[in-house]
Amino acid sequence: MKYSFKIKTLGVALALVSVFSSCTNDFDQINTDPNSLTEDQLDATMAGPSFASALYAGIHNGSYSSPGVDDQGTWGIATGILSSTFIQYLNCGYGTERNAFVNGYEGRGWTRFYTVAVPALNNAIKASEGNAEALAILKIWKVFMYNQMVDAYGPIPYTEAGNKKEKVPYDSVEFIYEDFFKLLDEANTTLSGSSVATVASFQPNDRLYAGNVANWRVFGNSLRLRLALRISDIQPAKAKTQAEAAVAAGVMQTNEQGAFFKASNITPNNLNMIVNSWGYTMTASMESILVGYNDPRLAKWFSKIDTGVYRGQPIGALEDQFGTTKFSAFNNDVMGNGAAGNLSETKNIEVFMASENYFSRAEGALNGWNMGGSAQSLYEAGIRASLAQWGITDAAAIDAYVAGNTLPTLPNVLTVYPTLDLQDIPVKLPVAWSAAVASQRTQIAVQKYLAIFPESWESWADLRRSDAKVIYAPLNTDNNDAGVGKSLMKRIIYTTNEYSSNKDAVTDGIVKLNGPDTGGTKLWWDTK
Asked: pLDDT at position 28, please?
């Protein structure tokens, strides 16, 4: 893949670096032509700006301030049209609703990752040589951003990504996960033994934690818990060891410890920019759960239509099947709370929420792992943390929700289209903790699905792993590949460019995938 990995991408990444350095007054303006910079010029002053670029591009966001390098459409195509649509966080109106890969959408996130995020990360690593705490934080971020890609595609270029060669080999999912745990363990050892409170080279540019060592250490351990649960079916003993080590070392427990990327006029929230302009709406699956549970987050996330009700659009409709039917739009609590025209600059980007850890620990407790609490107490703590994150403060309302016995409902769209195949409501359990373990696992999956919203990459991976029935099947499918049809998409297919420019490597990647390059091939950890 000629343009994705060779060192000439250094100039592109440094062009982005100049953009991010302008976000703060703490770095002098870079006046040198970025395309003339060479690798040996990556001194410590470039560590922070390079890390800033890796952070923003690593969450699939792009800035209108970096024309020719990246743009906000990256989120729309990589996240909105793919992962968010697959798990029905939103309705996008594109063929991916019907599980079809169309117009090369599967390539946008791949290309931006390997031409922007990876070079920026590699530059930050090079510029941080000799700074143990900075390198530890970069190890954590490397795991985070590569984890989203490996869980989306399967085997990917990893070990040799950025090797300055035209042909870049693929590593297996199992190998990459092994390295993930190694990196996270090394990072925790370094950060837990350090007396440094803040990494100065990152502080002005780190829009997650401003270089705070303690917060990054907690982030890394939370990520370790996430990955431990991911391998719990394929490597249960290792999963237990890793999960218990993560919890013992300290994972997120408060919303203040959560990871939220601070948006700005240079680093806008792409979800805000894309959702309304592209016409995304609430889905029938979200409506069924939120309305049925009387969920207090409902009014925070979505708007009623002009008839005074919520109406979610089913995923997988045929083109123009619903004509001019109105569906609920997203609210500003998701989009942003600033003045009209700059909401995307005020609404921070959800990266990793503390509530997720409670649900992961609750499931771990059901597995017999030492998670520092009972499954029920952790489950209920996760709900409370999520509600608090979204500004729900009424104690009585929170208690009522946690103890709620109402069930998800039939979607409102059936009043207009009564023959739609939506009668079998996916979730048939209340919020209140059930007696049966199988039901408890489903309840955890449902509440985790809601708590992670709108960060769809992790939610997609978690639903594939658990196989919990949370969302409706698409009404129609355009993909009859084995394992696809109307089921949850298992992965994203490789880009056409890889077949033309890195053919031998992608062919070997498919061998390591252990199945055809389709959306129906399960990944290594997806064994159910």
From this structure: 26
87 touches 456 (CB < 8 A)? yes
Cβ atoms 473, 285 nearer than 8 A: no
**What amino acid is encoded at 240 in this protein?**
K
Q: What is the pLDDT of residues 486-520, one digit of tens each?
A: 999 999 999 999 999 999 999 999 999 999 999 99
Decide if 56 contacts 267 (C-beta within 8 A). yes
Nearest residue to 46 (alpha-carbon basis) of 14, 4, 24, 70: 14
Quote the CA–CA distance of 239 and 273 in Å, as a whole number. Answer: 38
Question: What radius of gyration, in Å, describes the C-alpha atoms of the chain?
Answer: 22
What single DSSP character describes residue 41? G
Query: How many Å apart are CA 432 and CA 401, to the nearest integer?
Result: 8
The tens digit of pLDDT for each residue in 300-320 reads: 999 999 999 999 999 999 989
**What DSSP letter does each residue of 241-270 carry, written as one string?**
HHHHHHHHH----SGGGSEEE---SSS--H
Q: To which residue do tokens 């040799």 refer?
A: 160
Tell me the C-alpha distance between 271 and 416, whole Å: 29
Q: Which residues pair with 283 in a beta bridge?
A: 313
Structure tokens at 126: 């090079």
Compute the distance between CA of residue 123 and CA of residue 19 in angstroms, rounded to an integer: 15
Which strand (E) or helix (H) includes residue 350? strand 349-352
**pLDDT band per the 50, 70, 90 thresholds, residue 42:** low
